[in-house]
């Protein structure tokens, strides 16, 4: 950094004055951009494309809330599969048996390295490739599986870090009381590990809510539409973006509180450290 | 028969030969204090008694059972050996009561009501019956260590191992823990205690073991080992421990 030349050039101004002037300039730019946007944009046009009141109303009438529920159901099921699978993978990665470690590492690297959409396309083609193959609980089974196997790869790394963050003394205390390894893991290590990974795991949940939008790649029937599929379909029908905007807000209703929760949990963890 | 019998114990970490042939015994009801400079292998020796460290050579026999034998039911043997750590190692996600019951119900398969009764009795013994529902983080270091003692006692151990139980405590909290240990000793508990508390060792121990460089240099009644050490290394160590200006050297 060229701090030296800066101090030479701006010899005349104190740091506080300089900060003040910089802030002033920033506000000036902001006001200029806002004014430009205000006068140059066609607000009537924008309003009728993105926020047309009658389309907002019909989006609700056509069942945006059912789509919201579908998004939640898809996410919840996938989260459960991801959590269970991620825990198993994390334990495999920490196993003293080499092949378990290699298998888990391969799985994790594979699914973290792929775009999720590729996995979804693969799942959408499964019934074609294997004729007569069905995954139970249509459409939930296939959605949960597709979302869950990717989520498991991400969660495995988070959970592994959480398990390793539990102090070694905890395991020693448990073992010295006569607990066998599995029992010590269940009663002592995992409960503490999950407390540690609650914030990053909630982050994964947020990602999962958004990734559930990829479900439309599988090609579920209309009554299985989640928010994105539903919004896209309706926007096409109306040739108007309002349904997509409504669906976007629905995502935010889920993700924003979760985001706040993550920050709360992180602050709490920080405090108790 | 001795409660603990250790024969020709050797333990290395990589090329670091930490225990170099330890032979000693602890009799039923005996209180043995292990003293010695930092790094001399005291903790390692203690941890070999319940096989938290696995020795490369030698035998550890507790209550007639050779726990260094690969066929030994290690978890069952450990359940009968209480261990108290320097850093307490309470389970932070469990209440004080649950800390004292979790191993009872799972390892000893006691009924929840019985386990709770035992836990409460032992918390009473360490003077913490009013903290039953607290969590470890809400307790002082001295209280945490007393809970750790109650947790170990709740398994009805035949032997208690203490690894510098007061070393992590603020000086004003040391007394409470030592009081509990003194009481245990008077009740006849067999205890193996690694400690730097010379006054405690002198008063409570039946026998003091001085370790240095992975071997037992000298052992005997406290009046002899601490009061009138024969070996030069013991004399040097005690001079440094007992002279307050040298306490830092430890
Ligand atoms: N888990 C371990 N891994 C490697 N070295 C260890 C381990 N535990 C202890 N040591 C080494 O063994 C030696 C003795 O340690 P320890 O038994 O803790 O001594 P003390 O308790 O008398 O201070 C030290 O040199 C220490 O570094
Ligand atoms: Mg030590």
TrEMBL record, chain A:
UniProt-listed CDD domains: TM_PBP2
Q: Main site of residence? A: membrane
Q: Which GO terms describe its biological process?
A: amino acid transport
The protein's UniProt keywords, in alphabetical order, are: Amino-acid transport, Cell membrane, Membrane, Transmembrane, Transmembrane helix, Transport
The domain of life is Bacteria
According to the record, the segments passing through the membrane are: 24-41, 74-94, 106-130, 142-163, 205-222, 242-262
Q: Where is the ABC transmembrane type-1 domain?
A: 68-262
- Family annotation (PANTHER family): GLUTAMINE TRANSPORT SYSTEM PERMEASE PROTEIN GLNP (PTHR30614:SF20), MEMBRANE COMPONENT OF AMINO ACID ABC TRANSPORTER (PTHR30614)
Q: Which family does it belong to?
A: Belongs to the binding-protein-dependent transport system permease family. HisMQ subfamily.
- Name of the featured protein: Amino acid ABC transporter permease
Q: Which organism is it from?
A: Kribbella albertanoniae
Automatic annotation (TrEMBL), chain B:
Chief place of localization: membrane
Catalytic activity reads:
a polar amino acid(out) + ATP + H2O = a polar amino acid(in) + ADP + phosphate + H(+)
Pfam families for this protein = ABC_tran
Compartment(s):
Cell membrane
What are the EC numbers?
7.4.2.1
What Gene Ontology molecular-function terms does this entry list? ATP binding; ATP hydrolysis activity; ATPase-coupled polar amino acid-transporter activity
InterPro entries, per the entry: AAA+_ATPase (IPR003593), ABC_ATPase_HisP-typ (IPR030679), ABC_transporter-like_ATP-bd (IPR003439), ABC_transporter-like_CS (IPR017871), MetN_ABC_transporter-like (IPR050086), P-loop_NTPase (IPR027417)
Entry membrane topology:
Peripheral membrane protein
Q: Which residues form the ABC transporter domain?
A: 4-238
* CC terms in the record's Gene Ontology section: plasma membrane
Q: Write down the top EC class of this protein.
A: translocase
What keyword terms does UniProt attach to this protein?
Amino-acid transport, ATP-binding, Cell membrane, Membrane, Nucleotide-binding, Transport
Q: PANTHER family of this UniProt entry?
A: AMINO ACID IMPORT ATP-BINDING PROTEIN, GLUTAMATE_ASPARTATE IMPORT ATP-BINDING PROTEIN GLTL
Which family, according to UniProt?
A: Belongs to the ABC transporter superfamily.
Write the protein's name.
ABC-type polar-amino-acid transporter
Q: Which organism is it from?
A: Kribbella albertanoniae
């Amino acid at each position: 950094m060229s701090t030296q030349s800066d101090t030479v050039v701006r010899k005349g101004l104190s740091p506080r004055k300089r900060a003040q002037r910089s802030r002033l300039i920033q506000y000036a730019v902001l006001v200029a951009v806002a004014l430009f946007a205000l006068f140059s944009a066609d607000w009537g046009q924008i309003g009728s494309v993105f926020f047309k009141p009658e389309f907002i109303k019909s989006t609700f009438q056509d069942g945006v809330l059912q789509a919201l529920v579908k998004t939640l159901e898809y996410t919840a099921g996938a989260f459960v599969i991801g959590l269970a699978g991620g825990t198993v993978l994390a334990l495999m990665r920490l196993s003293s048996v080499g092949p378990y470690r290699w298998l888990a590492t391969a799985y994790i690297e594979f699914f973290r390295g792929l775009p999720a959409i590729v996995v979804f396309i693969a799942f959408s083609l499964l019934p074609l490739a294997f004729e007569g193959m069905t995954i139970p609980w249509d459409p939930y089974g296939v959605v949960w599986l597709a979302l869950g196997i990717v989520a498991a790869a991400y969660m495995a790394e988070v959970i592994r870090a959480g398990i390793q963050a539990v102090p070694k003394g905890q395991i020693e205390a448990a073992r010295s009381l006569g607990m066998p390894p599995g029992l010590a893991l269940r009663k002592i290590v995992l409960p503490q590990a999950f407390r540690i990974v609650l914030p990053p795991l909630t982050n994964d949940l947020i990602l999962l809510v958004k990734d559930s939008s990829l479900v439309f790649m599988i090609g579920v029937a209309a009554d299985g539409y989640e928010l994105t599929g539903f919004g896209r379909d309706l926007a096409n029908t109306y040739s108007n973006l309002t349904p997509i905007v409504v669906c976007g807000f629905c995502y935010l209703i889920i993700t924003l509180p979760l985001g706040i929760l993550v920050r709360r949990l992180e602050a709490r963890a920080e405090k108790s450290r | 028969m001795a409660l603990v019998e250790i024969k020709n114990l050797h333990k290395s970490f990589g090329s670091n030969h930490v225990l170099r042939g330890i032979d000693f015994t602890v009799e039923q009801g005996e209180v043995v204090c292990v003293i010695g400079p930092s790094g001399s292998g005291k903790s390692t020796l203690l941890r070999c008694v319940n096989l938290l460290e696995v020795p490369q050579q030698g035998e550890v026999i507790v209550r007639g059972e050779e726990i260094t034998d690969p066929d030994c039911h290690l978890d069952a043997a450990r359940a009968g050996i209480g261990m108290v750590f320097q850093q307490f190692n309470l389970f932070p996600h469990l209440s004080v009561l649950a800390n004292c019951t979790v191993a009872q119900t799972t390892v000893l398969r006691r009924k929840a009501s019985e386990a709770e009764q035992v836990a409460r009795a032992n918390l009473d013994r360490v003077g913490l019956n009013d903290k039953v529902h607290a969590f470890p983080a809400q307790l002082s270091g001295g209280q945490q260590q007393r809970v750790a003692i109650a947790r170990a006692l709740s398994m009805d151990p035949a032997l208690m191992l203490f690894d510098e139980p007061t070393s992590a405590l603020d000086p004003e909290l040391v007394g409470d823990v030592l009081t509990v240990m003194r009481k245990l000793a008077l009740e006849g508990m067999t205890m193996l205690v690694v400690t730097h508390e010379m006054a405690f060792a002198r008063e409570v121990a039946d026998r003091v073991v001085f370790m240095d460089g992975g071997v037992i240099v000298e052992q005997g009644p406290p009046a002899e080992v601490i009061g009138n050490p024969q070996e030069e290394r013991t004399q040097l160590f005690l001079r440094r421990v007992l002279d307050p200006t040298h306490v830092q050297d430890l």
